[in-house]
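debug: dumping io for the single-chain case to check the tokenizer round-trip. Nothing else runs in this session.
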Amino acid sequence: MRLDGRDRRLLEIVQEGFPVSRDPYAELGRLCGLEAGECLRRLASLRRRGVVRRLGVLLDSRRLGMAVTLVGADVAPRRVGRVAGRLDGLDEVTHSYLRGGRPNLWFTLVAGSRRRIGEILAGLAAEPGVLSLFEAPATRVYKLAVRFGGSGEPGELASGPGPDPGPVPGRHPGEARLGPPAPAARLSPAERDVLAGLARGVPGGRRPWAAVARRLGRTEAEVIEAVRGMLARRLVRRVAAVVDGHRLGFGANALVAWRVPLRNLDRAGAAAARRAVVSHVCARRAASGWPYNLYTMVHARTRSGLLEAVGALRADCGTEECRVLPTLREFTKRPPRFARG
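debug: decoded output
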């Protein structure tokens, strides 16, 4: 999809952060060199065309004290749709994908406790057609989330290695580096209300935070204060746009799992994180029969471009042992769900 220069500039800015203020489009306009009304119209158009698939809060589930894990399940092909449908009905499932190779169904669980994750996995293991499954929880994060340029080229991630890019509206200033685990934070009733109210994203209109407030029976000032407070406490990583890379020409992506000697893991993770075409880089626990411990998400325009990127990563990771699992279908992609406080 072709975008003009103004759309591209706006898209780059809102992926970094959407202002949390009474007049966010005036702030965007100052950054883009546009009138506030034109920013509003252009962003509405990008959302309507599916280039921006969601504008909302991106949470740090770990700081919120939630249990998070990635699961790989090997499911009989004729049962994949039914099992994926069951997963989509669970609030704790935030992402699920059909991938080439085995395991073929991969999904992320974000739950209130490890016990709840155990219950979900026990039920899934008994589902007809589920041949096997395992967990691969993250042990370290080197890079997280992707920014696409308006031309479709992927940008470097703010959470990758390197200097902090500085303050951006709607983004806490410490996002560039992942710190040590923090004690689980408690949400106030107002914060929980606001997260529940943003489940479908930031609404359209010139005063989006006022619209959220009306929906919740709160004031605009209360909503803004709650979001800013969660940004300051790093419970919200940023308020930003999530872009559909396919709409910008990125038609091929894959989860690539690597088997890296533990002594080389940090070096390999840091090297992979420097690649612009790699969005997510995590060290994860290996499993019985699945010895891979470094996971990367790779994006490209074509399958040949994807394979070329994987080839470059082999040198970065210092190993030939990997599994390339191309994305065949997206079943679920949504933020964690919160009930009102």
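debug: round-trip ok. The chain has ten helices and 13 strands.
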